[in-house]
Structures are given as C-alpha cells and as structure tokens.
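$ ./design --mode recover --in tokens.txt
reading tokens...
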C-alpha cells in the first residue's frame, strides 16, 4: 500500500475561479498566471482548466516551451522577460511576450535581429522598487521599443505591492504620472487589485492566487469572494499515543500534555510541503472535525490532539488544507501565506485530478 498522503486537484474549481476573475475584469482581457507549476497545481493541468483565459503568464522559458509543446497557441507572457541576448531567438520563434524591465534588456533587443515580430510589455516601477523603469529612464526604454522594427506592440504594466492591504492609490497615481506621455494599452491588476479596485482593470488583468481558490484580501475569506479551493492536501492517522500529564511530544519536547490526552500521528511533514514552523494549535481536520496540531512538525509526520474525537482511529482521514479548511487559515496560523503552501507542495506527494 502506498503512503496515504495525496493532493487532490479539482479542475472544475480552477475553471470556476477563472470565471470569478473574468466577471471582476469586466471588458479587460485576462492573463491566467500559471508560474511556479501553476502554484503547485500542475502547469498543463491548470492551463487546460484555464482554457478560456486570453493568455498565460509564466516565469521562465521551461514553462513557456512546455505550454507550446502541449499545443497552446494563446499568448504567453514572460513575467521576468529574458535573461540574456541568447534568449531572444526563443522569444521570437515561440511567439512569447517578454516583460522588458531594465536597460540591459533594451540593449540586447537593439543588437538582435529577430525572426519575425514580437509584442512586448514595458514594466514601470511605481514604488514597489523591485523590477521596472523609473521616471528617469522610462522614456529611453519607450523610445527604443517604439523604434525597434520588430517590436509590434507595447503594453505598459506595473505591479502593486499592497493591493490586499493599504491599497493602490499612491502607486496608481505614480504610474499614471510616469506613463502619461505614452499611448498604449495597460496591464495593472493582480488578484487583490482586481477584486478591490475597479479602476485597476485597465486592458489586461493578471490574476494569480485567486485562480487557485485562496483569498488575496486581508480579512475576506475565499468563500465570501465566491472562490473554491482547487487543491486539497489529505492524509490519514497512522498511529495513536495516549499521554499522561507531563509527557511531551516530538522533537525538542516543545509541547507538554497538561492532562490526559490522545494524539494522532499523521503521515505528513515538512518534506511533503507542510510548513515546519507551524506552531502547536495550527488547525487540521480529522474525520471532518477540527483539531489542533501539537509539537514540532517533523520531516514525515505531525501530531494532532484527537482527545475529543471519539471516532478517531488509525486510518481516520485527515485534511491538512483544502475542502473544509482553507489554505489561507492554515497559512495564517503558521505565520506564512497560502502562496507558499500551494507552491511548496513536494514532488513526492501523489496528485489525483478530479473534475
């Protein structure tokens, strides 16, 4: 028998969440962000579920070429652009849309004769101070791209640092100031901005996290936003221990039983992608009933308090996150974000796809 842990991916949930994004986007076109193996859900699996998107956004050439080899003909946006002049033949040959965000990329483009024409995104640094052109150099980049005989179109883009929290007003204002002289389509909204700020829809939106059924907004659950969890990580209890007061649990003896208690040992650990730093009290479902973790998460196992679950036994089903227990809640308890949980799913965890 195989180890009981598994991740179940529900393709209908992926498709549903894309439609939520589509409704929020209004007339804007939608890039489905499928970077990082589609946030752990499987690149080709997600691309198929997102087939009604207007294009796919990825991070590197491996992802882009995998989509093309699978027969995807829609536009593919390269979110970090290209990394050397040697990449440009691939960009042109496979009809990729690179994000140009620094002057070195501009110089490589100017020196390279492409096989055919490409579309390009010009990224503006509106205050996040990660990638993108500033007021001081955006005109140089714009003129170079406009003057390149093989750059067919330019779309202006930026990325919001805190669309789910403080908001986008300052960044949006600065973006408008920087790009005011240029007439071109815009791409602004990530998941949080798409759901909170209609003014950020522009011409193209780039939802990511929401497509996978997690909330991008602080204080609003995925359920209230109409999103469905697409990944459920589940396992089983593989051992039971009865503790007396004062007995301790796990590595470092970080948890001590205050009274008599029963703990269940779950076949899931940090080598499966569960956060090692998740503290005692992180929620888990055992047979559909919420229980807390106890002690330190180890490589292959974690412990849960099943003292109040009379029907719990070896073989009882366990949900680590997903259906009935949002990855957002587990991530918050562990002091991280659901992005990390989903994208961090380990390769050793078997995946089952259902409709």
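writing sequence...
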């Amino acid at each position: 028998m195989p180890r009981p842990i598994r991740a179940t991916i529900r393709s209908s949930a992926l498709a549903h969440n894309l439609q939520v994004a589509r409704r929020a986007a209004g007339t804007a076109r939608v890039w489905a962000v499928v970077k990082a193996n589609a946030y752990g859900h499987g690149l080709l699996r997600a691309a198929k579920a997102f087939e009604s998107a207007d294009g796919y956004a990825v991070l590197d050439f491996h992802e882009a070429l995998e989509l093309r080899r699978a027969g995807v003909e829609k536009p593919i946006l390269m979110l970090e652009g290209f990394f050397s002049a040697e990449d440009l033949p691939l960009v042109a040959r496979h009809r990729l849309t690179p994000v140009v965000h620094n002057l070195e990329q501009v110089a490589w483009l100017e020196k390279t004769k492409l096989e055919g024409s490409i579309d390009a995104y010009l990224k503006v640094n509106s205050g996040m101070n990660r990638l993108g052109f500033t007021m001081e150099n955006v005109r140089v980049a714009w003129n170079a791209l406009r003057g390149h005989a093989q750059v067919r179109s330019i779309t202006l883009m930026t990325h919001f640092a805190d669309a789910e929290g403080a908001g986008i007003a300052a960044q949006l204002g600065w973006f408008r100031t920087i790009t005011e002289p240029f007439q071109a389509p815009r791409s602004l909204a990530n998941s949080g901005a798409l759901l909170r700020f209609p003014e950020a829809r522009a011409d193209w939106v780039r939802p990511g996290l929401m497509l996978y059924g997690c909330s991008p907004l602080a204080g609003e659950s995925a359920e209230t936003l109409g999103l469905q969890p697409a990944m459920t990580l589940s396992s089983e209890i593989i051992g039971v221990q009865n503790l007396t007061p004062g007995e301790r649990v796990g590595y470092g003896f970080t948890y001590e039983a205050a009274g008599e208690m029963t703990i269940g040992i779950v076949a899931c650990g940090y080598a499966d992608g569960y956060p090692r730093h998740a503290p005692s009290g992180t929620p888990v479902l055992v047979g559909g009933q919420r229980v807390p973790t106890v002690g330190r998460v180890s490589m292959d196992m974690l412990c849960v308090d099943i003292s109040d679950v009379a029907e719990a036994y070896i073989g009882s089903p366990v949900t680590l996150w997903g259906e009935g227990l949002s990855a957002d809640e587990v991530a918050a308890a562990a002091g991280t974000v659901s992005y990390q949980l989903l994208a961090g799913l380990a390769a050793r965890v078997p995946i089952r796809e259902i409709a």
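exit 0
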